[in-house]
Design a protein that fits this description.
By secondary structure, the protein is mainly α. The protein has one domain. Helix content is about 50%, strand content about 5%. The chain is built from nine helices and two strands; from the N terminus they run ααααααβαβαα. The protein has helices at about 1-10, 15-30, 30-35, 50-65, 65-80, 90-95, 110-115, 130-135, 150-155; strands at about 105-110, 125-130. A two-stranded antiparallel sheet has the order 1-2. The longest helix has 16 residues, at about 15-30. Bound molecules: zinc ion (2 copies). One zinc ion binds near residues 85, 88 and 129.
Length: about 170
């Protein structure tokens, strides 16, 4: 995470300064601290810095915004695509029947602390199942944010990964 931030600072300094300012404002005004711990925060102790922890919490709380999720699902239908996990292709309706209709979570492809505080665009969001979403945010080797592609590669590199045994692709 630190390396990514350092890279973003050197390639997009003004955006990053803006993001840093927003974070500082959020922390000093108490806005970020007011966000309750999110259920998807995995291994919160994995974050050394309080700022990082609060930022991740902020990002995840945004991902839980039902209106954003709804718009992403509507957009996916409009494009004629299935409501399934971008990582493992899990499809809740196929797997669970009617109770799984339109069930999916959304995940920012770029972490907010890299992309800055701008408005989330639908293209910034991936559809992910609950398992893959947890794995996207699990603290591991100094990072607690990964893209669907990165997680797919991890699964592909895992001999018993379930990529090939999912119900629908
Ligand atoms: Zn998945
Ligand atoms: Zn996420």
């Amino acid at each position: 995470m630190t390396a990514l931030i350092a890279e973003a600072f050197s390639t997009r300094p003004s955006e990053m300064m803006e993001a840093a300012q927003a974070i500082e404002d959020g922390i000093s005004s108490g806005e970020l601290i007011k966000i309750p711990p999110q259920p998807d925060e995995v291994d919160p102790d994995g974050y050394a810095a309080r700022e990082g922890r609060l930022l991740a919490r902020w990002a995840i709380s945004r991902e839980r915004n039902p209106a954003l999720r709804k718009r992403k699902i509507a957009e996916t239908y409009r494009l004629g695509r299935r409501i399934q996990c971008d990582v493992c292709r899990f499809h809740f309706l196929d797997a669970y029947g009617p109770i799984g209709q339109d069930y999916i979570e959304v995940h920012h492809i770029q972490p907010l602390h890299i992309s800055g505080p701008r408005e989330t665009r639908l293209n910034d969001l991936a559809l992910v199942c609950a398992n893959c979403h947890r794995m996207c945010h699990r603290s591991h080797l100094g990072s607690s944010w990964r893209t669907p592609d990165a997680l797919r590669r991890m699964m592909a590199d895992t001999p018993r990964g379930r990529l090939d045994s999912t119900i629908s692709r």
